[in-house]
Sequence to fold (278 residues):
Amino acid sequence: MRLRVSISQSDRGLIDALTTVLSKAAAVILVVRKGALDTRMKADRSPVTAADEASETTILAGLGEVLPGVSVVSEEAFGRSPPQLDGNNFVLVDPLDGTREFIAGSDEFCINLAVVTDGRPRLGIIAAPALGMLWRTTAGGGAERLELAPGEPAANARTITPIRPRTWPELDAAAAVSRSHLDPATVALLDRLGVKTRLPCGSALKFCRIAEGAADLYPRLATTCEWDVAAGHALIEAAGGTVTSPQGAPLRYGNGASDYRIPAFIAWGDRSLVPPAD
Fold:
């Protein structure tokens, strides 16, 4: 039986410890990237590599030390054995988000980690190993971007920059859009909103662009998984934006009955643009 652990998302020590775990995983990915990726297709026809698995092994070991007894839902482990959640807290992990970009040789891949409490992501960290960057929620309730060399502890960050989304501009609003999954419904939504500038981007970097004010929204109008979204959701909300359903309803996490799927969402930098929930 798992222990019921009380997690404080305002604990700087916890945030730093989890940041260091992701930094170690980032270093592992870059080492594997230099050799054979051992790419293969999973049952859902999405790719997985040796780097995904090595990163996950590193993260799960780190979580066992930092948050012993807390349930973890991680993409690759979930495919082998769906977990049983216990208590109000659990961790969502995508050990390598943007595997297609990674295989193609792009640097637009990430590691995502979120701590979920009562169905809401309260703490989020996104690492971009090839860029030497990391975005995270802070103990003070905001969000920040770190320059952190893969493998280094959080305390060794070269720069730490507070980040915030921007107010919706009167002209030239910009949307972060998927490089791999841009669909006609998303294009139609952006046309209705008058958004002409579209910034193609892989992985959870799209959330980071909104949180730091480089883009104004990120619509995803197709099914995705909770581990793809939760860390970015936490980051944007901490920075001052929000992530909702396309109808403006709040997102809930921990839906094991639906295999931890999210039907659709829109990430907004400016909360005032969110439509009233039905």
Observations:
- Residues 1-5 have pLDDT under 50 and may be disordered.
- The longest strand covers residues 89-97.
